[in-house]
Known about the structure:
Strand order of the largest sheet: 2-3-1-6-7
Low-confidence stretches: 98-104, 255-263, 265-270
Distance between the termini: 111 Å
Helix content: 55-70%
CATH topology of the largest domain: Alpha-Beta Plaits
CATH architecture of the largest domain: 2-Layer Sandwich
Number of helices: 8
Shape: elongated
Structural class: alpha+beta
Strand content: 15-25%
Amino acid sequence: MEEISQLRNSRREGKIREEQLFNEDLLRTISRHLEKIYSGLHAQNTTTLIETFKNNTICAIREAPNKKRIIALVEESFNQVNLAVENNIATIRDGVESMLSLESKALLDPLTGLLNRRFYDQELPKIVQTFCKLKGEKPFSILAIDIDEFKQVNDTYGHLAGDTALQRVAEVIQKNCRAGIDSPIRNGGDEFTLFLVGATAKIALTKAENIIADIAAATMHFTRQDTGDNQAEENSFNVTVSIGICELGSDWLKFPTKVANQPVLRSDNDMQEYHRLTIKLVKGADKALYEAKEKGRNRACVYTPSPEA
């Protein structure tokens, strides 16, 4: 009897050990796959995917004929989850890249490749707000750039020649920018702006004079087809620009902190104080530009605020 009892105990212990080994194998399988898909599941909406995986796996395990099949089913289920996650990640990555590409294109002027008016409206208030938060410790200036008598170029040579001039002016402005710091913008038509973070009016004036000299020296070449005798006529011309400069003065500040998401050229009524400074900055650059035009064009002027401004 004692031998039978020992045999039974031995079989029971063997069975228990077998179950332990199986459970360990099952847990290792699950753990290995969980580690593999953790990063893919992170920050994704995978509730439906997980619920489907859980329900299908539980049903399959209940119907499995043996433990080997259970392990195989767990492996198969996790492989399906991994594949779904990888596909989701690829879709999300493609979507993000596409969205970033579209956003980038939406901020660029298609003719010149410079930033556009949308960027101007979005970023200038933010730059002024940052300036306010830093209490004017880091200077900021803008250049308002306008091609002189541009209408005459279009009237004399045609709009294709006008486009050539716009592109050449844009190239010169871009060439005079500090990469990753300055923001060259085409506002529309023949109007350009340059944001100069960290630049005083004195530094901005030097940059403006360089731009003016480079543009005046740049001869525009283009070919115009004479429809009368089908001959290609070679033409060339030069343009000049006038530039208005305004530095955001630290003495203008009341150090506002609130955020306002409003277009740059909105009415002054009920506007955040930092936004009023944005308007003042834009108007100051425009006044300096008009002064440059009145003094004969092809020059730069710096805005000097009056005591009551």
